[in-house]
Structure formats: C-alpha cells, structure tokens
Automatic annotation (TrEMBL):
One example GO MF annotation: DNA binding
Protein name, UniProt field: AcrR family transcriptional regulator
Keywords, sorted A to Z: DNA-binding, Transcription, Transcription regulation
Entry-linked InterPro entries: Homeodomain-like_sf, HTH_TetR, Tet_transcr_reg_TetR-rel_C_sf, TetR_C
Boundaries of every HTH tetR-type domain copy: 6-66
DNA-binding region: 29-48
Length: 195
C-alpha cells in the first residue's frame, strides 16, 4: 500500500516554478529543486516524474497564474489598443513584482540551453510565437473593423509589441522598477497608429 504524500503538491510545484523562473531550466538542478520544494528526490520523482515533466507542470502553472494577465487582457478588452496597453501595464507591475522572480518565465527560462534541452527551448519558443500571434490577430481584427487605418501592418505591429514585452522582461531582470517599465509602456503606446 502506498504511503500518503507528506507534502503539499501545489506548494511544492509553486516553489519549483520559482526555481525554474529564477535560474532557467538547464541551470536548475534536482538538488536545488528538492531543497526549494522541501522534499527528497524520490518524492519529486514519485509526484512529478522527472525534471522535464516537472518543468512542464511549472510552465502550465505559470501560465494559469503569474502569466495569465496576457490572455485575459486580450480576451476582455474591447479594442486591440486597450488590450495591448493593459498587457504592457500589467507586465510592468508583474515583471518587477518583488514577491517572485523578475521578468517572464516563458521568455527567460530556456535562455542558453544546450542541445540536450532543445525540446524545452522549442516549447517555450512556440508559446512566445502563440502569444505574438494573439497580438497580431487582435490587431488584424481592429484593422478589419475599421478601428485602425487600413494600411496598418498587423504582423509588424504585433512583432513590435511582442519585442517590447520581451524587452520589459529583460529590463525587470536587470532591476528596472515598475515605474520605469510603465514609462516604457507609455512610450510604446505612443507608437500606436492613429486612426
């Protein structure tokens, strides 16, 4: 008969998420994970499988919690402009929040991965591409609806704001304050096409 788990799985997963977020996938060891999670390696393997599967669960949790503001803003705001502005403002506050590691886990967790972690890098690249596609689709919908000038290039504008978001993540990791990131957001919104 299996023994009941002696730790809270959700709490352990949140701690693993923060380790991956802070150090990246490749630099995070099983030893650092188990220390952060307050469990021993056999418990990690029994509860989560291996490091790769634990990382997958951590990314899913990140997207449902810390990173959920992006999809929520795009779904809830009435226009692409309002959605993008909200994303940038919430990114400023979230990325520089001292309650957790700085920046965006999806942007930074697979930086400098070697060939053995190429699948992790590719998974996160696909997630970033999907987010950029969501921006482009919202912008394109506003062009079609006449809320943006007909000559607006949705691909270029979406790529610009995706690059801004990625840059804000890096700036937060370098110590930028929410105020500094909000100023970046203000400048980025000044580039929005008049229409």
């Amino acid at each position: 008969m299996a023994r009941p788990r002696a730790f809270d799985r959700d709490t352990a997963l949140e701690r693993a998420l923060e380790e991956f977020w802070r150090h990246g996938y490749e630099a995070t060891s099983i030893a650092s994970l188990t220390a952060a999670m307050g469990i021993r390696p056999p418990s990690l393997y029994a509860a989560f499988g291996d490091k790769r599967r634990l990382f997958g669960e951590a990314v899913d949790r990140y997207q449902r919690t810390h990173g959920a503001f992006f999809a929520r803003a795009l779904a809830e705001e009435p226009t692409a402009r309002a959605a993008v502005e909200r994303v940038l403002r919430e990114a400023a506050d979230t990325y520089a929040d001292p309650a957790h590691p700085a920046g965006c886990m999806i942007i930074s967790a697979a930086t400098n991965c070697g060939p053995e972690s190429a699948d992790v890098e590719e998974d996160l690249r696909r997630m970033r591409a999907r987010s950029k596609r969501m921006l482009v689709d919202r912008i394109r919908a506003d062009v079609v609806a006449g809320r943006l000038p007909a000559g607006t290039d949705p691909e270029a504008l979406g790529a610009f704001y995706a690059a801004t978001i990625q840059g804000m993540s890096r700036q937060a990791q370098d110590g930028a304050s929410p105020r500094t990131l909000r100023r970046i957001a203000d400048l980025a919104m000044a580039a929005w096409p008049a229409g």
